User: Fold these one by one.
Assistant:
Number 1:
Amino acid sequence: MTWYTLLMTEKPSFLHTDIFLDSGDPAETRHALAELGFLDGQTTNPSLVAKNPMILDLKSKGALSESDIWDKYKIVASQIHEIIPHGAISVEVYADLETDYDTMLDKAHELASWFPGIYVKLPITHNGLKAANALVAEGVNVNMTLCFSQEQAAAVHAATAGAKYGQVFVSPFIGRLDDIGIHGLDLIKNIVFMYQAWDSHVKVLGASIRNLDHFFGCINANCNIITSPKTVLDQWVAHGLNNDPINYTAEISEKQPIPYRELPLQDWVLYDIDHDLTKKGIEKFASDWKGLFS
Ligand code: G3P
């Protein structure tokens, strides 16, 4: 047991959603654990790792190779694991739009070996889903990221059929849908509703959380997990760690609603998984990652 685990207290009783921190910095893990008294997990991604202070400091002192960066990423993930040993920690494979299945699978195997229980993040692309299909059969945990449509979530469910409940997360990005004038929280509600109807093994992890509207919206939609940046966790602490609807006034949204779709349960390759924001997200992660060593 570390001194950090001594900081842990009971979660608020109303809370049926797990709370993760979205950050590539273990100092923020310590901060979140201290201010909340609990922390159920943490998600990282290439853009967040590219902001890690230790990695930025090393970069400022000289050139780093890609292999150096992976070594540092492993150190960062292991530090987070030490702070929250029972937390679900996600680390992301490198993927650009050309990354093939074998490369993704090899990297996923390497990341899965960092420590027990780790979640390997893969993009919701054909190769990402194919890799997830193989990985869950081996017992690896996966977090399918850059989800922007109900069809993509359906494909995640179908591609990982047979996995244990909670072995698979799907990460719908709320804020990035809001950015283009679409009501991101509707996607969470639709996926939760569809998965409940399918008695799905996949947990819904609300991501790209920008404010307390998103945070409480996920809780009220019965989302399994929220991954929140430090800034929003700080706002929740200032709000009294509650979910009191009297204190909480959701903004009246001018955004375009996303209607629920009755989707068939079918072979995962039959779903239309294309989404511009998934492509843009992959490009951004790849460019932030490459920026560390090029
Ligand atoms: O969890 C995904 C998150 O890191 C992306 O957030 O604010 O860049 O859309 P954002």
Number 2:
Amino acid sequence: MTVAIIGGTGIYNLPGIEVEEKHIRNIYGEAMVYLGKGEYKDVVFLTRHGVKHTTPPHKVNYRANIRALKDLGVSRIMATYAVGAISRGYPVLELAVLRDFLDFTSGRAFSFFDEIERGIGHVEMSKPFCPTLSAKTIELALRHGINVHDGATYVATNGPRFESPAEIKMYQMLGGDVVGMTACPEVYLAGELGMSFGAVALPINLAAGLEENITIHEGNIDEVRAKMIALMLDVLKETTDEECQVPILL
Ligand code: HPA
């Protein structure tokens, strides 16, 4: 049983955990991962944007990354996303547990089922984020005294530009709560390969039009990120493959 944490903007290591860097080649390209050592030997860490945030959201090789995790034997993933807050229920610098998404990305390699030899597969997205991992995140956050807000719908945009105020107004009308550039196709690629996937978003700004200009709020961000990583590690430790749900492939 191996688990993974995918870190987004601002998360480039797992503090206090000794790791070994590994480059993994597969038919989709190359992925760089860190393998935990000692007590954390079953934990894989992947930093989505590369070591020094060198890969923009639309250029991330999502398929190489997710395939690499699968080939390492990963069965459960917790991912983090830096986002803009659209709805009032998801305040800046407080964690949001993702439950659903609206995918506005385009032009990305977004499926493993686009080559004839793999056949045709349709991954079900009724519950895109594993309900067990999400529920455990809420439960443990309460126990750790961390503020979390459940039930967020993530709007995935293509980036790398930010949105216009009219776009944010539209996403708000469609039920979007937070906006970011990377959860799609990541979440459904993991589903296509049968891995369960939970996610926590950290709003770092109010979305366009909600303030005069986009302002990135740093505040106690390092402290929040450290707590978020510790929470995700605990969530993975306190859940099992048996109780986690994987989207169905039809
Ligand atoms: N929009 C899109 N992606 C983001 C934002 C935003 O406002 N903030 C952080 N990532």
